[in-house]
Amino acid sequence: MEIAELKTVTDKIISNFVNNLGLNGERYVSSNACLMAFDKLGPIPGLFHSAESPELKSLVEKLDISQKHKDYILSEGLILLNKKYRNSIDDSELLVTCVHERFHANRMILAQVPSKATETIDPVFYDQGRFIRNSTEFEDKYMDPNQDILLGSIDDSKANVAPYQDLSKNELEDLYFANDKVGEKMNIQYKIDEALVELMAGIAYGLYIGKFKDIMDGVDYTSKHYSGDDLRSMSNIILRHNDLDLFKWMIDPLTYQNNDIHYDFFSHYINDEDKNDVKTLFESEEIMPDDDEMDRIALETRYK
Questions:
Q1: H helices, E strands: number in the chain
Q2: Sheet of 46-49: strands edge to edge?
Q3: In terms of CB atoms within 10 Å, which end of the chain has fewer, N or C?
Q4: For residues 127 and 175, is the Cβ–Cβ distance under 8 A?
Q5: Could you give the count of Cα atoms lying within 13 Å of 303 in the half-sphere of its Cβ?
Q6: What percent of the chain has pLDDT over 90?
């Protein structure tokens, strides 16, 4: 299946799924016409590079195309799909992968976020029992609000942030690397997000081919028949709440985060009855690498 046909078919799959959520599917698929291409990705089925990201810049610099086309790709972002699926007899895995990456791409936003304190220190770290911003400088950056931004309560008060500005680089690094609370939280966010997006992509395809009568039917099927503990646990949570709010959050994160880019919707959504499934999800080994690691593997594979 070539890119043009893939775009047409996944438009229909995604639009149908979003309509079944009670949202406007046609408007959703037209809101972000992210570029797609086949590439050699090794073990990775697909990935999405945000606009102007370092990974995308590294890739585009090596392409033998005009600067005009390079600038266009950098401004729009890029979905890469494993070329091993290109001439497959069964298109199901390609379609599910493409839908998965397009859900990621449609969430890309331009946000004003704190700049890194140094190249090795992120703008938020964990100190004295709370997450705290350690930088007063800001930059505009294309980001995924569910995977690239720390969700939760972050102390950004001037009085508490100011003392960190006078610390040396070594002192900041000592504080930053004293624990890995930020990394642990981001890894949990990643697992939640990937489980939800993969569940959505599989159900969207099932709806398209008539396997499921509605979205909740697909969630129920996954809970009963899927062997992986990540999607099964997430399905159990959704069935227990008997609503589709987590999927709607994936489609429209900022609305469900009360227009607060740091609001942790999932933590406010779950309850005590969900704790065993949440624990299983957080400890799941189904999804291991984070986005940076996936990008690194893909880029190393491409340019060997």
A1: 15, 8
A2: 35-39, 78-82, 46-49
A3: C
A4: yes
A5: 11
A6: 61
Q: How many Å from the N-terminal Cα to the C-terminal Cα in the chain?
A: 26
Residue count (the chain):
304
State the DSSP code for 86: T
Q: Where are the alpha helices (DSSP H) in 127-244?
A: 158-161, 169-176, 181-208, 215-225, 229-241
What is d(CA 195, CA 302) in angstroms, rounded to the nearest whole number?
Answer: 27
User: CA–CA separation, 206 vs 184, rounded Å?
Assistant: 33
How many other CB atoms are found less than 10 A from the CB of residue 109? 15
Residue-wise pLDDT for 174-204, tens only, equals: 888 888 899 999 999 999 999 999 999 999 9
Question: For residue 79, what are its two tokens?
Answer: 């979905």
* DSSP reduced 3-state for 49: strand
128 phi, psi to nearest 5 deg: 55, 40
The CA-CA-CA angle for residues 2, 96, 8, to 5°, reads: 40
CA distance 202 to 227: 14
Query: Pseudo-torsion of CA 28, 31, 35, 41, nearest 10°?
Result: -40
> Rg for the chain (alpha carbons), in Å?
20
At residue 226, what is the residue type? Answer: Y
pTM of this structure: 0.89
pLDDT at 287: 60
Residue with tokens 């880029």: 299
Q: What is the mean pLDDT of the chain?
A: 88
